[in-house]
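Box 3.1 — From sequence to structure: PP4R1 phosphatase
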Amino acid sequence: QSRDSVIHYIHNDSDLSTSSSFSPEEERKSKVQDVVPQALLDQYLSMTDPSRAQTVDTEIAKHCAYSLPGVALTLGRQNWHCLKDTYETLASDMQWKVRRTLAFSIHELAVILGDQLTAGDLVPVFNGFLKDLDEVRIGVLKHLHDFLKLLHVDKRREYLYQLQEFLVTDNSRNWRFRAELAEQLILLLDLYSAKDIYDYLRPIAFSLCADKVSSVRWISYKLVSEMVKKLYMASTPTFVVDLMNELVEKFCKCHKWSGRQTFVFICQTISEDDCLPMDQFA
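Predicted structure (token representation):
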């Protein structure tokens, strides 16, 4: 009966919409919820107790982190106050595997909690993960677009300044990190204005086009072609003209053969994907 009521609650409650209708005052009123038996929730919350890790299972904090989005979904966003302290404890856990688990699911939790709680409680944790080990950073990088699209436009623009930092990794041989960055930047083109794309994403894209690993470069050619397409469709034509002129200067006239080859591949991708009318391409 208890299980049925939980399922009924999940499917019918309006708290799964993307904007929070609960004020911070209402969320602080009560520390007790009535969705699941309180003893069950207390047992779950006690999994972050360090003594449990020593006596029960060293992986228990990781299991707790893995289950947290599901628990949050079941309880609903009006009961987030029950989980908030546990989430912050896990986010600062000494084991990187625990933080990595949270990093991979923070975008899912943001959908569950809505924009207000995300901005107040998840963004600080997200910012911490951005400065963490590569094993943790890859979690937020793989779902960067999924998380940023949930933020308010002004908040989203703040991350433009930090995207450059993803080019720096603990291990320069970690080329998959840069390949993932290129993939995410293609998705991020839809979230930013033509000016922001030209000012912030263009330099990163050009850097990735000159990467030492061919897999990264191939994704980057697609990124540049999509950038050309997006800027061509913008209301200000100067951005796409400046971008094309820079492609010619930086790659077509490059003194290294690899740079000139890059120009040919970018042209190929632009023409194959119909990113420009043929008269503009010419």
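Summary of the box: The domain at 164-281 is CATH 1.25.10.10 (Leucine-rich Repeat Variant).
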